[in-house]
């Protein structure tokens, strides 16, 4: 039996009934079969029926699906498109988490300019910068300078959201000069924050705070934001951490952004590293000095390290010695006082091999008083131990090199030592010592007589 096709009026009656019952399958079937779409009034009814009191996890998928279908069923006239913008207002008033629905409406490309801006601002306010970026690309909306400043500081003050920083930087118009000014202002404010507001920044128990500071500054710098005062302040704070991470970053700031720091601050860090026995940090601190200051810094740290060459603590002595050797190998030494002090400390620790190295490589010498003390001290050891083998005189013989032979006081000093040794209580190698010193005296007197 054939049935007559439905008239348009009949189809509209069916659509009204489907809308009243909120029957989306029926609405969709009517559109598919007869090409009929929702009128503006019907479209509004359908949309408002999809709106829950609160957008929570259990209703969002259903509401979003119904809104999507409603958008597919609408008539694309001015009245219906105004309804989409009006509906956005209602969604934004709802409780819960309506961002996915707002995004669905934004993607419809039917929002008016005011609605577009409201949706964009909403996404920014809740930190959905991915949706905000999509709107920027779709509608050309961007952050103004006030929003940019607010969001940057908000992100900095929430270390766990540091990953959002780059997303925020994608939301402003690069040609907006006021935004460019704000970026420099934010960089300076964060980099140069007062010490009393950033004490935890340098506390090693709050390492994540410095990480956040470093990531924030680095991100802005890599984005092209520049301010030399801010970069220098960041380097100063990096050095103040006195840790490997901070010092390595300070080196990067110097290399990549020409950051600089005054000599005094670096010297404080250098001395603190030595006092705390973190000798390995010295190799990270030294590259931070200006090229004109490296010799001075090197000489001073060698003198500082000499204070840690304590014969009572062998482990500390060994670490400090290795740090000295590393410094000498890297930069040498232009301070006679520094190498002479190291020689003295090496002998106090009975480290004749290192003392010989300091003497031969760096022309380190003992002053005449210290030379006299050192030789007699070795003689007393030989006497007390009652050594009989001349082998035990090797260190004494080696020590004769540690004094400048052109010192005019040297002959008299040796003569005094010989006289004193002769008057000592007899010991096995006594005459060997006297003969050795007498021979040394003859060797140094011959050039002196020739020169005279």
Structural commentary:
There is one protein chain. This protein is mainly α and 452 residues long. Helices cover 67% and strands 1% of the residues. The protein has a two-stranded parallel sheet. Helix 1 runs antiparallel to helix 2, helix 5 runs parallel beside helix 7 (113-125) and helix 15 packs parallel to helix 17. The longest helix is centred in the C-terminal third of the chain and has 22 residues, at 430-451. The relative contact order is 0.04.
Stretches where pLDDT falls below 50 for ≥5 residues? none
Structural class: mainly alpha
The largest beta-sheet arranges its strands as 1-2
Share in helix:
55-70%
Radius of gyration: 42 Å
Question: Biggest sheet: strands, sense, closure?
Answer: 2 strands, parallel
**β-sheet strand percentage:** under 5%
Helix-strand sequence? HHHEHHEHHHHHHHHHHHHHHHHHHH
**Tally of DSSP helical segments:** 24
Main attributes of the structure:
single chain, 452 residues, mainly alpha, 24 helices, 2 strands, 67% helix, 1% strand, rod-shaped
Question: How does the SSE layout of this entry go?
Answer:
Blueprint lengths: L7 H13 L3 H11 L5 H11 L3 E2 L4 H14 L4 H16 L1 E2 L2 H9 L5 H13 L3 H11 L5 H12 L8 H5 L7 H15 L15 H16 L5 H13 L3 H14 L5 H13 L6 H4 L8 H13 L7 H18 L4 H13 L3 H11 L5 H18 L8 H6 L10 H13 L7 H22 L1
Parallel strand pairs: 1-2
């Amino acid at each position: 039996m054939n049935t007559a096709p439905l008239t348009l009026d009949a189809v509209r009656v069916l659509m009204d009934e489907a809308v009243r019952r909120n029957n989306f399958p029926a609405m969709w079937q009517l559109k598919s079969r007869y090409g009929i779409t929702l009128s503006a009034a019907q479209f509004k009814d359908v949309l408002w029926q999809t709106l829950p009191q609160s957008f929570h996890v259990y209703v969002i998928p259903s509401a979003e699906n119904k809104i999507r279908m409603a958008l597919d069923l609408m008539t694309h006239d001015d009245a219906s498109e105004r309804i989409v913008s009006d509906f956005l207002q209602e969604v934004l008033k709802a409780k819960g988490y309506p961002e996915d629905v707002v995004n669905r409406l934004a993607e419809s490309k039917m929002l008016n300019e005011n609605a577009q801006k409201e949706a964009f601002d909403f996404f920014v306010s809740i930190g959905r910068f991915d949706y905000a970026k999509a709107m920027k690309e779709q509608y050309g909306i961007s952050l103004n300078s006030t929003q940019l400043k607010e969001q940057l500081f908000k992100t900095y003050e929430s270390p766990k959201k540091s990953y959002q920083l780059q997303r925020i930087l994608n939301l402003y118009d690069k040609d907006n000069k006021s935004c460019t000014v704000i970026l420099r202002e934010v960089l300076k404010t964060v980099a140069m924050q007062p010490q009393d507001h950033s004490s935890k920044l340098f506390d090693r128990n709050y390492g994540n705070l410095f990480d956040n500071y470093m990531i924030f500054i680095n991100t802005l710098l890599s984005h092209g934001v520049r301010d030399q005062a801010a970069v220098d302040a960041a380097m100063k704070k990096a050095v103040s951490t006195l840790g490997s991470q901070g010092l390595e970053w300070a080196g990067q700031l110097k290399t990549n952004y020409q950051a600089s720091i005054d000599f005094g601050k670096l010297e404080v860090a250098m001395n603190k590293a030595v006092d705390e026995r973190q000798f390995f940090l010295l190799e990270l601190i030294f590259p931070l000095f200006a090229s004109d200051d490296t010799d001075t810094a090197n000489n001073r740290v060698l003198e500082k390290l000499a204070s840690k060459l304590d014969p009572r603590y062998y482990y500390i002595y060994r670490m400090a010695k290795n740090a000295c050797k590393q410094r000498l190998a890297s930069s040498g030494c232009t301070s006679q006082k520094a190498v002479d002090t190291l020689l003295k400390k090496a002998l106090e620790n009975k480290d004749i091999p290192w003392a010989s190295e300091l003497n031969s490589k760096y022309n380190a010498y003992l002053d005449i008083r210290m030379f006299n003390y050192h030789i007699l001290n070795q003689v007393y050891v030989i006497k007390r131990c009652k050594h009989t083998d001349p082998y035990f005189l090797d260190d004494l013989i080696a020590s004769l090199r540690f004094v400048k032979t052109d010192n005019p006081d040297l002959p008299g000093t040796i003569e005094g030592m010989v006289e004193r040794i002769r008057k000592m209580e007899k010991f096995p190698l006594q005459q060997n010592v006297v003969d050795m010193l007498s021979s040394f005296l003859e060797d140094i007197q011959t050039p002196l007589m020739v020169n005279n």
